[in-house]
């Protein structure tokens, strides 16, 4: 092991029942380096990290860590922390019912002279840490009251605050907005100056080129290459990840301006949900793709949840195809032809232990009602069709959903909604945590649905992605719908609308 | 080798395996164990005895399975509810305050339906507490666990009510001319109705979805709270039916003794059946086999001269073993070991 190498992993093998998740993978991290770990969904990025930090035990291979003699075997995440490896996992691993401060200091709470927890000091320090990241929240409130993005920042803050020489971030930015990402980058650059090595997993190519020094590319559990940033331009990176050359991503925007169908699909008047979103009006035509944009916590998700009935609206009226509808629960909306892909996939989407097939037909079955069971042969037909159409990577249709990688889980949830043939589809961050190839597929799909007459509401943290697909955008700020923009939209015009530029 | 592995992975492996061991021990101990004969025109033998006596546990286990799956918790009130149902029925049949009767106050069917209805009502109360008020199942059902017997006692005016009316004994004994204990038919009927219902409707999918992730299930259009409520009602109805059988056996309502400790056996049956007590996926057949396994254990112990008081010790040991085998860490450990072996084999293959 050389002087400035922090971590060297060689020939790592890890098998799960049915899949070789890692097949002779390798990874080298140097001091003061931000190292991107790239690969498609299911390439094994999270798994190699977990093998390093002791979540999983590797089946074969060598791991060397600076300052530790010989081949390192971590048996638990505590072991890894002890030798200076702090990790933020892809799935947030915090305790929802503990306060923010407790979550930050769990296992290392400041104590008073009597040996009890020093709450005052803990809350004060927690506040300082969060302020440092520019997040103004009440640290004594239970974590579950905050959005996924803020929870993610808290997980990051916790890892960063621990003295460490290696920091691992597994897709930390997937639920963050640009501002928060920038803050995270500042923190990362700061740590880098102090000599900390950082492993950074992300699906956002821009982010890789913004902060990283080196890139390790993985594919199908194997090692593809370790490159310096300058020798690997974007196109080559994508090609390395996919194992093939890649044609231009941008060329999917529909040619010219299309005619908008005059038929109104859904109309909402004065809908609101106490505490999350103020009364708003909304209208979408048949075959239209409308974006909802705004900073995190601006009420993007809350708005669509209200339309769909995931949060019951307390005021206002909704009309579907001109007819007034009364939405009391998600089931009512499904019966009216709505579908909603939630942004918190793990909490609101996946039924983890059930099979891919069960997960796909769930909403269809719910719409049919309990007494009209979808025949098994039909279930199989539907599941196979969508596994094929969306290219869901799964060992079989009977594999439990929890065993699929994040992006494939997302596709299963999408399939769940597509098989109900909705007229009005709400997609809240459908492309989060999904690799770039699939992302483009998703965008193409959305446009295709619209062409077939489906109305789509599309929410994404990536403005670029929405620009490519949406004809109109609703702008949200502080739980309120403040603006609507259409026509020639550019990244700048959208950003300034979000920021509320003119005032 | 691979075939064996596949077999052990089957959910029904554990319950069958346990049952097999118990039966084997019996066979070695007393070779006459499997003998079935006819005495006084009815079937007679240890096996028949187990099938007959295990009826109540099996019926309870059916309801308990659904409750565990949907709410990741157990209904500990079923034993007491059995007793309440029995008291309700006997009170109806004898008339309030009468402690022994040969003439029925109302038709027998009405009395029995009333008892089962009481069970359903108790289930509804448990269900409302768990599904609507989100009280932990164990705590919510603790209320009826303690209260139901007392209410039963009130219904029977603080005494044991005897129904000395021949047909009332049929349910827990024999129908004249039929050599098979009636309770076995009742159990088959309950299992058949519930499993046909699960097969023909999507209730099973709903229960599992709600049990695994109720938030996601709701978003997908499933009324998780209602499903949870329904499961508790079914569980209550099962307890009511089991109460009928138990009461018929002694043609009376003995509030303090009917269904005593049966909730433990029912829960144990579910666990023995390979069902996770953490909710989610479930297997009805497993629970039923589990129920008969427990009855077999009890019968065996009693036949071996272990006193009724000490039998629970053996059951406790079995519970501990099951809980350990089912623990996620233990399972992971097994899975890891297996995967490792596979990886090594893959490595070997590459080198060769
Ligand atoms: N706990 C697990 N059990 C079984 N298979 C798993 C498990 N975790 C990951 N896998 C499989 O291993 C492969 C790599 O997954 P992962 O490391 O999560 O990919 P990613 O690069 O997207 O982070 C995938 O095929 C996934 O389905
Ligand atoms: Mg991952």
Range of helix content of chain A: 25-40%
What number is the mean pLDDT of chain B? Answer: 89
User: Which pair of protein chains has the largest interface, and what are the residue counts?
Assistant: A-B, 39 and 31 residues
Euclidean distance between termini CA atoms of chain A = 57 Å
Helix content percent band of chain B:
55-70%
Strand numbers in spatial order across the main sheet of chain B: 3-4-5
Categorize the overall geometry of chain B: globular
Which ranges of chain B are low-confidence, i.e. pLDDT below 50, for 5 or more consecutive residues?
none
What's the alpha carbon Rg of chain A, rounded to whole Å? 23 Å
Ranges of chain A with pLDDT <50 over ≥5 residues? 245-252
Provide an overview of this structure.
The complex is a heterodimer of chains A (503) and B (352). Chain A has helices at 45-53, 77-82, 100-105, 119-132, 148-161, 178-193, 205-211, 234-242, 300-308, 330-335, 345-349, 356-368, 376-389, 406-418, 436-451, 463-469, 491-499; strands at 5-16, 19-30, 34-38, 60-65, 85-88, 166-170, 197-201, 214-219, 222-228, 264-273, 277-285, 289-294, 315-320, 323-325, 338-341, 424-428, 455-459, 472-477, 480-486. With 503 residues, chain A is of the alpha/beta class. In chain A, strand 13 (315-320) and strand 14 form a beta hairpin. The radius of gyration of chain A is 23 Å and the shape is globular. In chain A, 49% of the residues are buried. Chain B has 352 residues and is mainly α. Helices cover 69% and strands 4% of the residues of chain B. Chain B is built from 15 helices and five strands. In chain B, strands 3-4-5 form a three-stranded mixed beta sheet. In chain B, helix 4 (55-71) packs across helix 12 (262-272) and helix 6 (108-132) runs antiparallel to helix 11 (224-249). The mean pLDDT of chain B is 89. Chains A and B meet through strand 1, helix 10, helix 11 and helix 12 of A and helix 9, helix 10 and helix 15 of B. Adenosine-5'-diphosphate is lined by residues 16, 19, 21, 39, 41-47, 403-406 of chain A. Residues 45-46, 90, 170, 406 of chain A line the site of magnesium ion.
């Amino acid at each position: 092991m050389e002087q400035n190498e922090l971590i060297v992993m060689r020939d790592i093998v890890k098998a799960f029942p049915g899949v070789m998740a890692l097949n002779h993978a390798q990874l080298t991290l140097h001091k003061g380096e931000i190292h991107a770990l790239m690969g498609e969904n299911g390439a094994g990025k999270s798994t190699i990290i977990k093998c390093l930090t002791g979540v999983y035990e590797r089946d074969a291979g060598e791991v060397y860590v600076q300052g530790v003699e010989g081949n390192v075997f971590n048996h638990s995440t505590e072991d890894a922390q002890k030798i200076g490896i702090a990790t933020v996992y892809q799935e947030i691993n915090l305790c929802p019912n503990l306060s923010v401060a407790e979550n930050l200091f769990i296992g290392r709470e400041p104590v008073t002279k009597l040996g009890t927890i020093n709450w005052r000091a803990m809350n004060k320090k927690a506040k300082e840490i969060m302020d440092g990241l520019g997040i103004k929240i009440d640290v004594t409130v239970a974590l579950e009251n905050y959005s996924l993005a803020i929870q993610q920042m808290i997980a990051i803050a916790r890892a960063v605050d621990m003295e460490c020489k290696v920091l691992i971030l597994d897709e930390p930015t997937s639920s963050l907005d640009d501002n928060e990402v920038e803050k995270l980058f500042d923190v990362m650059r700061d740590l880098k100056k102090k000599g900390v090595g950082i492993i950074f997993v992300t699906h956002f190519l821009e982010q890789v080129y913004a902060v990283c020094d080196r890139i390790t590319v993985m594919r199908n559990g194997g090692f593809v290459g370790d490159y310096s940033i300058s020798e690997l331009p974007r196109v080559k990176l994508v090609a390395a990840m996919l194992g093939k050359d890649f044609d231009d991503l941008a060329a999917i925007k529909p040619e010219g301006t299309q005619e908008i169908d005059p038929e109104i699909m859904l109309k909402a008047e004065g809908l609101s949900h106490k505490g999350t979103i103020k009364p708003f009006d909304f209208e979408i035509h048949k075959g239209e793709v409308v974006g909802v944009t705004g900073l995190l916590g601006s009420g993007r998700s809350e708005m669509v949840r209200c339309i769909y009935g995931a949060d019951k609206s307390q005021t206002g009226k909704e009309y579907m195809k001109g007819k007034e509808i009364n939405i009391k629960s998600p089931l009512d909306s499904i019966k009216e032809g709505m579908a909603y892909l939630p942004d918190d996939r793990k909490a609101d989407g996946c039924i983890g232990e059930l099979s891919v097939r069960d997960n796909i037909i769930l909403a269809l079955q719910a719409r049919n009602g309990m007494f009209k069971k979808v025949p098994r042969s039909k279930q199989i037909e539907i599941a196979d069709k969508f596994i094929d159409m969306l290219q869901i990577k799964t060992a079989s249709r009977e594999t439990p959903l929890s065993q699929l990688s994040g992006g494939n889980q997302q596709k299963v949830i999408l399939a769940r909604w597509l098989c109900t043939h909705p007229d009005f589809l709400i997609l809240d961050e459908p492309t989060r945590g999904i690799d770039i190839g699939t992302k483009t597929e998703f965008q193409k799909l959305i446009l295709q649905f619209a062409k077939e007459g489906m109305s789509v509401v599309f929410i994404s943290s990536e403005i670029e992605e929405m620009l490519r697909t949406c004809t109109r955008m609703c702008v949200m700020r502080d739980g309120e719908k403040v603006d609507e923009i259409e026509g020639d939209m550019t990244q700048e015009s959208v950003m300034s609308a979000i920021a509320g530029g003119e005032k | 080798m691979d075939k064996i592995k596949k077999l052990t992975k089957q959910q029904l492996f554990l319950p069958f395996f346990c049952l097999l061991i118990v039966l084997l021990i019996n066979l070695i101990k007393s070779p006459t164990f499997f003998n079935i004969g006819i005495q006084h025109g009815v079937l007679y033998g240890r096996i028949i005895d187990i099938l007959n006596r295990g009826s109540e546990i099996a019926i309870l286990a059916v309801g308990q399975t659904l409750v565990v799956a949907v709410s990741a918790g157990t209904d500990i009130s079923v034993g007491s509810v059995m007793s309440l149902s029995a008291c309700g029925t006997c009170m109806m049949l004898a008339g309030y305050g009468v402690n022994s009767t040969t003439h029925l106050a109302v038709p027998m069917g009405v009395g029995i339906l009333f008892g089962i209805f009481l069970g359903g009502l108790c289930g509804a109360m448990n269900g409302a507490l768990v599904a609507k008020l989100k009280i932990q199942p164990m705590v919510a059902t603790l209320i009826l666990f303690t209260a139901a017997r007392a209410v039963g006692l009130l219904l029977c005016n603080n005494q044991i009510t005897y129904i000395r009316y021949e047909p009332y004994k049929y349910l827990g004994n024999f129908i004249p001319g039929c050599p098979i204990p009636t309770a076995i038919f009742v159990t088959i009927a309950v299992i058949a109705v519930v499993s046909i219902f699960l097969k023909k409707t999507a209730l099973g999918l709903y229960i599992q979805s709600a049990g695994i992730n109720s938030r996601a299930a709701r978003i997908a259009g499933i009324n998780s709270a209602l499903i949870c409520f329904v499961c508790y009602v079914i569980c209550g109805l099962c307890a009511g039916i089991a109460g009928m059988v138990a009461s018929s056996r002694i043609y009376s309502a003995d509030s303090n003794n009917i269904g005593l400790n049966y909730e433990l056996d029912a829960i144990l049956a579910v666990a023995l059946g390979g069902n996770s007590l953490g909710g989610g996926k479930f297997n009805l057949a497993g629970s039923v086999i589990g129920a008969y396994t427990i009855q077999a254990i009890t019968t065996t112990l009693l036949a071996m001269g272990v006193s009724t008081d000490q039998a629970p010790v053996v059951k406790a040991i079995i519970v501990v073993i099951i809980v350990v085998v089912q623990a996620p860490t233990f399972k992971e450990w097994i899975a890891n070991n297996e995967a490792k072996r596979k990886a090594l084999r893959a490595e070997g293959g590459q080198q060769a």
